[in-house]
Amino acid sequence: MKVRSKQIAEGKSQKVLEQGPLEGIFPCSTSKILDFLCVFKKYDYSISDIAKHSGITFKTALNETRKLEKQGVITNSRTVGKAKMYQLNQDSVQSQSINKLAMDLAFKKLQKVKT
Fold first, then answer.
1. SS3 for 4?
2. CATH number of the domain residue 102 falls in
3. Which is higher by pLDDT, 1 or 94?
4. What CA–CA distance (Å, rounded) separates 84 from 48?
5. Which end of the chain is less congested by CB atoms within 10 angstroms, N or C?
6. Is 94 a residue whose pLDDT tops 50?
7. Within the chain, what is the greatest distance between any pair of CA atoms?
8. 83-88 and 45-46 strand pairing
9. Is there a contact between 106 and 93 (Cβ–Cβ < 8 Å)?
């Protein structure tokens, strides 16, 4: 799981994770979004940012964030102008489980690399 933190800060990268731990097992747009939000969970992001940094289209990000918000996995943290900002819902049992799974998979992959 390589993170391109300099590129995200400069807004140059389309996808900040080459392949996240969830995407490696569940190759779909939802996994890409969850990987991104699990890694960068201290901040909130607009749907445009989520799309750009997850490597998916805006329309797909819009549809998937709606589903994830209905399920309580992500939450609308605030509104900046017209943009709604989203982040992983730290109070949700589902989000905590997803985050734990992502971190366990990343740790397992890291241990494989070391050996």
1. coil
2. 1.10.10.10
3. 94
4. 10
5. C
6. yes
7. 49
8. antiparallel
9. no
35, 65, 90, 92 from 27: Cα distances, Å: 11, 17, 24, 23
Q: Which domain holds residue 63?
A: 5-114
Q: What is the pLDDT, as a whole number, of residue 38?
A: 94
Return the percentage of the chain with pLDDT > 90, whole number.
Answer: 74
- From first CA to last CA, the distance across the chain in angstroms is 16
Give the separation between CA 3 and CA 17, rounded to whole angstroms. Answer: 5
**114 falls in which pLDDT band (50, 70, 90)?**
confident
Domain count, the chain: 1
Spatial separation of the C-alpha atoms in residues 58 and 60, rounded to whole Å: 5
45-83 pLDDT, tens digit per residue, is 999 999 999 999 999 999 999 999 999 999 999 999 999
